[in-house]
Write a structure and sequence with these properties.
Layout (H helix, E strand, L loop, with lengths): L3 E5 L4 H10 L7 E5 L5 E5 L7 E5 L6 H17 L4 E6 L18 H12 L3 E5 L14 E4 L2 H10 L6 E5 L5 H11 L3 E8 L5 E7 L6 E9 L3 H12 L4 E9 L5 H7 L4 E5 L6 H6 L3 E4 L2 H12 L12
Parallel strand pairs: 1-4, 4-5, 5-6, 6-7, 8-9, 8-11, 11-12, 12-13, 13-14
Antiparallel strand pairs: 2-3, 9-10
Amino acid sequence: MNALKIFSGNSNIPLAEKIAEYLGTRLGQSRFTRFPDSEIMVKVEEDVRGCDIFVIQSICDPVNEHLMELLIFIDCMRRASAQRITAVIPYFGYARQDRKDEGRVPITAKLVANLISTAGADRVLTIDLHAAQVQGFFDIPVDHLLAEPVISFYLKSLKLNGSLILVSPDVGNVKRAKGYAQRFNVELAIIDKRRISGTDTVMENIIGNVKDKTVLMVDDLIATAGTVCNAANLCMERGAKTIYVGATHPLLCGPAVERLTAAPIKSLIVTDTIPLSTTAKENLPNINVLTISDLLGEAIRRIHRNESVSNLFLTG
């Protein structure tokens, strides 16, 4: 096998360090600088010729900055004669813009997929895409992992009582919630949600009975937290006892922290695909951050060895 080397952009260095530790190696040496006009300059400070390179970078806030870092890093590796380059993108930004739902709008997820391929990536490794069909936007292999095993393992350790019910906060999330419901062998309820703007939603009904039950809501991400907080309030109004919320990507932008602080949520479980903001750390004592470093590290190890990653979906 050619040498395995792990590099990281600036979006989530702590996660990259944990992945490198899992693999028994260190992060590759690189340097980011700026030209006087603020353009990004990347310098790889070790030999990568003929190596199997994994570049770890979440496309999170500041989204455009981190996307450009990733593209420039990939191009740098390609021109340095790396044998294979895998873009490890724990959080894939722009994935929500995956179709034309009205006139004169872009399909930005496809554009970003094109950019990554054109920059020189040979494959992509990511976790919990907002829309699974984004995999089809790439003309290179995509390994799409789920954080469900990691989150489920933690939830099982809490030994939640037998009155547990899975609640999908909207119809679009039913497939993900159904997977958790099957894993815990419990019923599934669905909330009828109507979006009135990019940040606000209205929830009017629950399909299912949550009275006197422990509610678990799961989603791929929490952005402004309007959906999950409104859903939690509705569940409490309908007689739920306790509410747990799990989400892979804690974007927590805009009014999210304020909303979550006021919401009737006992525990908020997220992963470290995106670094938590200082505001979130200081104001959300009920938040629990799980690391997905072992999951990504094992996937990287198997990709490097040309082994199957399929059974990573089934563990936990």
